[in-house]
Amino acid sequence: MALTPFLIGADPRIAPSSYARDVAAVANTQVDWKETPEAHIFKANLPGLSKDEVKVQVEEGRVLQISGERRKEEATQGEKLHSVELVHGSFLRRFRLPENVKVEEVKAVMENGVLTVTVPKMQKPSAKTIDITCT
Fold first, then answer.
1. Which single residue of 40, 47, 61, 123 could bond 119 by disulfide (Cβ 3.0 to 4.6 Å)?
2. 11, 2 contact by CB (below 8 A)
């Protein structure tokens, strides 16, 4: 069996199927969640995706949902794909947010393939001191 120059060192007879690889990779879209004194910050590496291919929503019950789709590149007339290794398909991640967040102030920024979602926290009410009077 001849190997293409793009598969040097790989044995296509034992390589995982394209479908299985894509399902595993899309299902495992990794997201970091960091809490600061001011906000909860979520970061997702989404290389090759534009902001139009990603959706950020806050559902009822304070559930942050990050979803999107990476489309498979298709060969056009006169072209031939020799190897398709980039992951494609849909992804969806959901996070239940704590009660102390301002869901109406969520912000999302996509820069260099990294999505950053910032969920501000509510300020803790400060304790009010009550003057005690003597009678």
1. 40
2. no
Count Cβ atoms within 10 A of the Cβ of residue 17 and give its class: 0-12 exposed, 13-18 middle, 19 or more buried: exposed
Least confident of 4-8, 16-20, 107-111, 121-125: 4-8
Which strand (E) or helix (H) includes residue 20? Answer: helix 18-27
Q: What domains appear along the chain, each with residue ranges and CATH number?
A: 17-71+88-120 (2.60.40.790)
Task: Provide the whole-model pTM.
Answer: 0.69
Sequence-separated (6 or more) residues with CB below 8 Å from residue 101: 40, 62, 119, 120, 121, 122
Element (H, E) at 24: helix 18-27
Query: CA 51 to CA 110: how far, in whole Å?
Result: 6
Element (H, E) at 13: none
Pairing type for strands 63-70 and 39-45 reads: unpaired
